[in-house]
Amino acid sequence: MKKLFLLCLMVAVCCLSFSYKKVLAHPLDFTVLQLGCHSAGSTMESVPHILVIGGIQGDEPGGFSAAALLGTHYEFKNGYVTIIPNLNFFSIVNRNRGSFGDMNRKFAKISRNDPDYRAVRRVQELIRSPEVDLILNLHDGSGFYSPIYVNEMQNPKRWGNSVIIDQEEFKDIPFGNLGEIGRRVVAKVNENLLEKGHSYHLKNTETAKGDKEMEKSLTWFALGQGKPAFGIEATKNVNTPGRVYYHLHAIEAFFEEAGIEFSRDFSLTIEGIGEALNTDIYLGFMDDRLILPLDDIKTSQIGVFPMRKNYGVKGNSPILTALAEKNMMQVYYGNNRLTNFKVEWLECDTSLESMEIEIDGNVYDAKFGDMLFAEEYVKILPQKGYRLNAIGAVVGNGPRGDESGIKIYKKDFQKRFSLDKKGNQYRLEVYCGAKYTGTFVLNYVQELPENPVYSPLE
Q: Gene3D superfamilies from the xrefs (predicted)?
């Protein structure tokens, strides 16, 4: 089961809830996660600290997806890892390199009027942090870098599958032997290639010799602050799980160089990465009174949902969010718009936190937002002053405005009202008069899980 953020040390994530109109003026903020701990006998000052940045360019899903997995599926000890999975979040959801220009060319100089100004200044402060020892900036590059010309896709002008340094070494600082470290990392990644032609190489841009474009970059800025920095490029010639595969192999090689111990809860294979990215994905609204399971969500409009104006968004991946535009809500997972739904803006009643629910003969106390699992039926036990609307269900002798106290079977639902493509998930909405109270998502399954009532974002 995907954990939200089970960490030894965690920094609160930045708010992801913005209306669409506000986003146009103030791009989505990025998330900062600080993970890790130190072993017995060591101190915070004696253990390494790596800053990993993904999503500086919004059309490079390998980088920001790899960083997102670091924040949700890894645990660290004897070291700290600060992760920014979604630095240019506005460009990520808009599927472009940079909605306001290339953010990775704004680190030498940026106007206060630039919409990226606040994000660039904030990440510059993180780079300057005294505790940060090493910086990794994740990218997806075209083709395959090679120091010699092989063909159109494999030559010195390409960037894919390379470790980037700005100069061979930076003397008198930890990890300043950039070239040596980079070559060792390249060698480790090359032990795990998906195909023979995917070899990694070290690319030295020799920025100080007059590379005006690289002088504007994040890694060159970092070196100017006395912080060793590397770019990691995965090739765009493979799909997103393949890019994540190469990014994580390179990142783990850097962790080993720094002496950071780690574990992950998936296998570092294409299959394992695909499962980690696409299983147990949830997005919560209104303090989790509504939680949507997104693994198999319909890509077409999934209906009309009650929503309060200050709806708030929380997902179990930092590259999940939702944006409202007038009466429509768009749900995003990285570059992908997963689904959308119409919104009915209502007042919200928060005086009730849970209800008693009968599932296949047993009674459970369920909080709003919980997932319910049933083989046969579900029955919401009546609560004075509250009514149930089972969306898409036809029960009893016809519409009566309240389906509480009635056994509801899968056959009672019209499949077109399901949330998922298979037709197994349905909404149970509870109201107090005209005010919205909360939603349960009901899952009809072949076999009940050990716990038929599940809180996915706890």
A: Zn peptidases
